[in-house]
């Protein structure tokens, strides 16, 4: 996908989904890429609560920690982390209702 196609896809597909979402879930990998950077930036500019899931021992940028509604550390595939994500979403809905 070319950079122009990527931007068009983001504007036409991803951004509208983010606008209509209550919160944004960001799953950090070991490296940053343009997709995650655009998503985090858009979430901040849209004033959306950000739930971040990061692997244990991974480096979470300090600025991202500051803007995150909730930071969950662990393997996203485990039941424990899934439960934490669900709890964070429940808390978010309760606090914003």
Secondary structure topology:
Elements: H1 3-20, E1 24-27, H2 34-45, E2 50-54, H3 62-67, E3 70-73, H4 79-96
Parallel strand pairs: 1-2, 2-3
Helix pairs in contact: 1-2
Q: Can you give a write-up of this model?
A:
The protein is α/β, with parallel strands linked by helices and 97 residues long. It has a single domain (3-96), classed as 3-Layer(aba) Sandwich (Rossmann fold), CATH 3.40.50.9200. It has helices at 3-20, 34-45, 62-67, 79-96; strands spanning 24-27, 50-54, 70-73. The chain has a three-stranded parallel β-sheet, with helices on both faces. Helix 1 packs parallel to helix 2 (34-45). The longest helix is centred in the N-terminal third of the chain and has 18 residues, at 3-20. The protein is globular.
In short:
With 97 residues, the chain is an alpha/beta fold. Helices cover 56% and strands 13% of the residues.
CATH architecture: 3-Layer(aba) Sandwich
Distance between the termini: 40 Å
Count of individual beta strands: 3
Structural class: alpha/beta
Please describe the structure with a list of short key phrases separated by commas or semicolons.
97 residues, alpha/beta, Rossmann fold, three-stranded parallel beta sheet, 13% strand
